[in-house]
Amino acid sequence: MSNQLHFGIQTAQQHVSYQQLLDLWLEADREPLIEHMWIFDHFMPLSEPTDGSCFESWTLLAALAGQTKRVRVGHLVTGVTYRNPAILARQAVTVDHISGGRLNLGIGAAWHAQEHQGYGLPFPSAGERVRRLDEAVQIIQQLWTQTTPTFEGRYYQLHEAHSEPKPLQKPFPPIVIAAGGDNMLRIVTKHADVWCSTAQTAEDFREKSARLTQHCEASGRDLNTLERLATILIRPADTDFRQTRETAQSFIEAGATHIVLSIAAFYQREEVIPHLVHEVIEPLKQSYEQVSA
In the predicted model, what is the mean pLDDT of residues 180-205? Predict the structure, then answer.
């Protein structure tokens, strides 16, 4: 496993203006300890008020990628049911070029039934969504590496699909897959560079991580090639970020190599990015390096 610890920030694009998001991203882009920035992929807010604003994610990510210079950019995570995977592959390549090769492709099987119903999107069974994700990642990888790929899947097909330009990153951008259940963990083992955990507690993370390790060993996947990411939602009451720091520490001890801090509750707080760096990221990074030395 990696002996490096990485930190990122997630800014869910609900109940916030574009200018507020841009200001946060530009501020984070100036902080070297923040290595990646993320949004989510939803068409309606996930928190109250649910009739509030929510920006479409891929057009937003392209804009933010074009304004930033250093941080890696992506989604935690884009839903496989929302877009044809061939179109998604072309969107992702475009953002990779806009960003100068800083895209991480975060993808998952999708889960928000109300969103699918509201927008008239098919919402298949969990098993079918997992199978669709497996095919989708294969299609995306082929479009990223082959000139005119053909693919005959159960759900998706390509027929000599012209696919240029290729991603700036070679062989292609890192693939981050969100997963909790065993069927999804097998997809992670098969395709992902980074596992995005769905665990809410460090104990759950540790248990799911152990099962992921078992799947890797069963399939012959090199554990050193798979990073493990935990997302921590910062609670509004945690104004001094002490609880956030302690929670993040517990996930690190459970094996997380990437910690993403979700700051939706702190959009109105001035200098939230520097506070997170000084009160959460710096002490955790120092502690990790001392233990790893």
Answer: 97
